[in-house]
Each structure stands twice: as C-alpha cells, then as structure tokens.
Amino acid sequence: MMNRDYGKEIDGLKEQIEMLKDLLSNYRNDANQEKENKPLKNIDRMDNMHPDKRLAELMKELCEKADQRDSTGAITYLGVYSSGGRQSNWIRNQVDTNNLLKLIESNTATKVLACIGNNDRLKIMLAILRGPKTVAQLVEECGYNTTGQVYHHLKPLLAADIIKEEGSSRGVYAIQPHRVQGILMLLAGISDLYNPKYTQGNWELD
After folding, report:
1. Complete edge-to-edge strand list for the sheet that includes strand 163-166
2. Which of 31, 46, 133, 193 is deepest in the core (most CB within 10 A)?
3. How far lies 181's CA from each of 18, 35, 54, 189, in Å?
4. Is residue 173 classed exposed, middle or buried when 0-12, 13-18 and 19+ CB atoms within 10 A define those classes?
C-alpha cells in the first residue's frame, strides 16, 4: 500500500486555491474595467473631481446610480453644526433631483422662500441659530426699537415651524433641531450660486 504525503497534497491544494483567487480577482478587475468604460445613457461620469479619492469615487457612483434610475441626477451631502451648546449632524445619500424639482412645481419652494426671504426674519433666524434668545436679546442684537417689531417677524417663523418657544418660563426662542440642516444647506446653495468654482460639467447647448 502506497503511503500518501498529505502535507504535499495540502500544499498543492493551497497553490490551486491561490491560482483560483488570482483568476477570480483578474475577472473582477476586467468586469469592473468594462463597467467603468461602458458609457452611461444620459449622464457622463465625472472622474477626479476632487483630490480626495473617496469623494471622487462617490461622484462616479452618483452619476451611475442616477443614470440607472433614468433621473436627472442625485445629490449626497453631510454636515455638522455646533453653536450655543447644541449640535446637529446630518447625512443624506442619493437624493433624487427629480423630487427636488417637484418642490418648485408644487409651490413648496415658493412658500418656504417667502417665509424666510425677508431681511428682518433672516437676521432674527441667524441670531437664534447661534443660540436661544429672548425677545429682549433679539431687540438688542438685531437693532430693533421695540419688542413689537420682533414679535411681528417671529410669528411667521413660528407658524412655519422653523423656530420654537422653549424653557420653563417661556419667552425663549430656539431653532427647531430638524430645521438646522435645511437652513444651512439652503445657505450652502446660495453660496454656490455666487461661487461656481466647485462645479464641473457641460451646460452648453448642442
């Protein structure tokens, strides 16, 4: 009876497994390369838009996902804001731009912008965003002469659920936690309207 060299057989199996791993890895690389080279239907991939490779890859993924959905586009964003002893963090991934455009069609965007698109309300909102304030503090910080002026502008902000009255004694106003993200992202959008340096793409008519 012939003695088997199990150690040698195991070594041989290990070599075969490594070969299979290499073949599988090459196959995946080829498949990924083919996928990357395959043109999208409606959206062009944007390569190397950012020096951070993670963000550059995220942009490519957004382009591919939006194209798969036959959407006009997608947005991913995250942020953090800390002020007045309070903090808000947010992450939203692959928000469909078709749904964002519907906010104009439904007049929702008009209503929101009409509510806060007033210099006095914006000043009050900024003061409260930096930390909860009493009406007396708002009169002083925002340069009003009477509390009546402040109450006049607080009313629509309260009705829109952008700010709230809090504290055991009441009379202290704070930004609603779930509105912080929207306010700052709206300001980020305004900033991009003024400064398009981070935008790439083709916006020319054929």
Report:
1. 133-134, 172-175, 163-166
2. 133
3. 50, 35, 23, 12
4. buried
Q: Are 184 and 33 in contact (CB under 8 A)?
A: no
**Residue 185 in this model has a pLDDT that exceeds 60:** yes
- Those residues whose C-beta lies under 8 Å from the C-beta of residue 44, and which sit 6 or more positions away, are 63, 201, 202
Is residue 9 pLDDT above 70, yes or no?
yes
State the pTM of this model: 0.71
60 has a pLDDT exceeding 60: yes
Write the CB contacts of 179 (distance below 8 Å, at least 6 apart in sequence).
161, 162, 163
**DSSP category for residue 179:** G
Domain layout of the chain by residue ranges: 107-197
Letter for the amino acid at 146? T
> pLDDT tens-digit profile of 127-175?
999 999 999 999 999 999 999 999 999 999 999 999 999 876 678 999 9
Per 3-state DSSP, the chain is made up of helix, strand and coil in percentages (nearest 5) of 55, 15, 30
